[in-house]
Write a structure and sequence with these properties.
It is a single chain. The protein is an alpha/beta fold and about 400 residues long. Helices cover about 35% and strands about 20% of the residues. Helix 5 packs parallel to helix 6. The two termini are about 40 Å apart. The structure holds zinc ion.
Length: about 400
């Protein structure tokens, strides 16, 4: 436990409780080229706090969004299961809300347009808001309107002044990456049309604790939400959570539905209270639960290191699959370098022939696995393990096994 001078990102209460200290960690989305190996890399303290007033789990903003998104390399279109998830969502929400060409859909953090293109195909007006210019450009080239900006009150007011409001306002995996949470949600309130609906998808922090998903903590990921905290954030900004879907993405996410609080009197789905109660029952509004967490995470680290060292001593070749942001936390926290994981591979061409930040593990194209026939493949994006094991079915030919590091070490 240690005190910190900064207050909670949402409620301003002093943050007095460290949930987990992961030591020093670099920015996980950085691209490290061969030339960069001769340069220094910046490491920042990576510490997660929990606020005992609103139960928002959070990491301080030590690096500005501008610095992070200037070399942002995440393109949503590289995951098949994620594309299908987006299509399914668009079908579901179009039917549920009865969306037509008269409605305006706005997506915050629209990335490369992988989701909005489904609305566009259905002739439903779609607008993206995306701060990473190189990523937004891909969407614009596909004919999807994009505002290249960080979202907040200023952007919302500008759009409203132009006569644009959202009948459906969505933000997937973005609210956790926003340094000024209150400005962001206040902006959503402004941009939402009077009878509009907000949907927000974000990993459920119950899995961060119970599922030991500590590698989802990284510099660029500022806030980790329980429903308990999300509900308070919405309320404070005049919005009301009225339904939740439990979905499997990113190791277990919630899709929150919100509307203007002024529409009170409308029904709230029982699942909202049920999930809040589940969080209370799991001890997530009790500090003792958070105090135990560091020990559990250390156990996960030791198990992985034990496995890797033993495999190496037995002369086995171990490689990785994937180079997601979460791998940076895992590898840096565990101190895993090329001696323990020889290389990793990624389907994203921008990451190929570069190196994992901090640990300098080389990233190759997936073909490298067939060329070197490793004994073990550590699946770093463990949330996509089924999809990846299917894609890599051919490695069974030479008897390779898959290693899943989280929540508990599994060799399959
Ligand atoms: Zn708080």
């Amino acid at each position: 436990m240690s005190n910190d001078v900064r207050g909670c990102r949402f409620c301003g209460h002093p943050l007095e409780h460290t949930m987990l200290d992961l030591g020093l960690s670099p920015l996980c989305q950085s691209i490290v080229s061969r030339d960069d190996l001769n340069r220094g890399q910046m490491f920042y303290p990576l510490r997660a706090f929990v606020c005992d007033q609103c139960w928002l789990i959070q990491v301080h903003e030590l690096v500005s969004g501008e610095e992070i998104y200037s070399h942002y390399a995440y393109f949503s279109s590289y995951s098949d299961s994620w594309l299908k998830h987006a299509r399914d969502y668009c079908d579901m929400i179009t039917e549920r809300l009865g969306l037509s060409e008269k409605d305006q859909v706005i997506e915050i953090a629209s990335n490369d347009g992988y989701l909005l293109k489904n609305f566009k195909a259905a002739n439903i007006p779609a607008l993206g808001i995306e701060p990473a210019a190189n990523v937004a450009q891909v969407a614009i080239e596909d004919g999807i309107d994009c505002v290249v900006e960080f979202f907040g009150v200023a952007t919302a007011k500008k759009l409203v002044a132009q006569g644009t409001q959202a009948d459906l306002l969505l933000g997937n995996n973005v609210i956790g990456h926003v340094p000024d949470l209150n400005d962001f949600v206040a902006g959503m309130k402004i941009l939402l049309a009077p009878n509009g609906t907000i949907t927000i998808e974000i990993p459920h922090a119950i899995n961060l604790i119970e599922g030991r998903q500590f590698d989802t903590i990284y510099q660029e990921h500022y806030s980790y939400f329980l429903l308990t905290a999300m509900r308070r954030v919405m309320r404070r900004h005049g919005l009301e959570l009225f339904d939740v879907d439990e979905i499997g993405t990113h190791g277990g996410s919630l899709r929150y539905y919100a509307r203007h609080a002024e529409e009170s009197g409308r029904e709230i789905a029982p699942i909202v209270d049920q999930i809040e109660q589940r969080e209370i029952d799991a001890g997530l509004t009790n500090l003792d639960t958070y105090h135990d967490y560091a020990r559990v995470v250390m156990e996960t680290k030791w198990n992985l290191l034990e496995f890797l060292i033993r495999a190496r001593r037995e002369g086995k070749q171990v490689v990785g699959y994937g180079a997601p942001g979460k791998a940076s936390t895992l590898l840096n926290y565990c101190g895993i370098r090329e001696d323990l994981i020889r290389y990793t591979v990624d389907r994203n061409e921008m990451k190929q022939n570069t190196f994992m930040v901090g640990t300098s593990i080389p990233i190759h194209a997936p073909d490298m696995i067939s060329e070197t026939k490793p004994d073990y493949i550590v699946i770093l994006p463990w949330n996509l393990k089924e999809e990846i094991m299917q894609q890599l079915d051919h490695v069974r030919e030479w008897g390779a096994k898959f290693v899943i590091p989280i929540p508990e070490l599994m060799v399959l």
